[in-house]
Amino acid sequence: MSLLLQYVRKSYREPDGSPLPVLNIQRFEIKPAEQVALIGQSGGGKTTLLNVVSGITAVDSGLVQVDGVDVSKLPEVSRDRFRAERIGIVFQTFNLLPAFSALENVLLGMTFSGKVDRPYARSLLEQVGLSHRLNHRPGQLSVGEQQRVSVARALANRPKLMLADEPTASVDMAHQETILTLLRTACSENNVSLLLVTHSPEVSAQFERVEELTAFNKPEAAA
After folding, report:
1. Disulfide check for 7: which of 60, 62, 112, 132 has CB 3.0–4.6 Å away?
2. What is the DSSP letter of 94?
3. Which residues make Cβ contacts (< 8 Å) with residue 77, sequence separation at least 6?
4. Which CATH number fits domain 3-218: 3.40.50.2300, 3.40.50.300, 3.40.50.1460, 2.40.30.110?
């Protein structure tokens, strides 16, 4: 999987109707199976960038090419399907369904692509060290264990690209390295490219390639 963003612009509207530029990216690229940490301050456009890459947010203009497909040119329904089939997302707040077990949360993640594979879901939870927590609901799991479930769920549809939005923000310092190691190892073992956004220098220091959003997002476009 490769990712290429070129001449990408995205703005929102202020309450008075004036434009608020957020992204103005000249060029940003990730090679197949590469792992990249993107660092920037809160409010700097990092989450918007992930939403643009995943097709959650449409761009104003520019190329957003994921695995050879220009996501920006797809209609909304097709973007949703593309995301379900090829992109995994690890959220800061986990987004697990509280009424369902760890295994059921991973299985539910598979339903969006229509390919439910129970043995594979179990193997993913075993891979992240939760073979003894398959039937536990989120409320019965520690914060670190919940994040492990979210990593397994993000890998459920065998994505080509993993997007991680501040994945260690909800865990304490003692568990940050554990979560990062888990996420990076899981991506390596499954040959998945990884783009992780963070505002933490401690987190970005764990990566061989670190990019600052301001380096390829024009200063006048930062928000």
Report:
1. 62
2. -
3. none
4. 3.40.50.300
What is the residue whose two structure tokens read 């990076």? 184
CA separation for the pair 173, 196 (Å, rounded): 17
- H or E segment and range at residue 147: helix 143-154
Question: What angle do the packed helices 143-154 and 102-111 form, to 10 degrees?
Answer: 30
pTM of the predicted model as reported, rounded to 2 decimal places: 0.87
User: Residue 8: what residue type?
Assistant: V
- Pick from 140, 194, 33: nearest CA to 149: 140
What's the pLDDT score for residue 96? 93
pLDDT in tens, 9-49: 999 988 888 888 899 999 999 999 999 999 987 777 888 99
Q: What are the C-alpha distances in Å from 112 to residues 8, 28, 83, 85, 190? A: 28, 28, 9, 8, 20
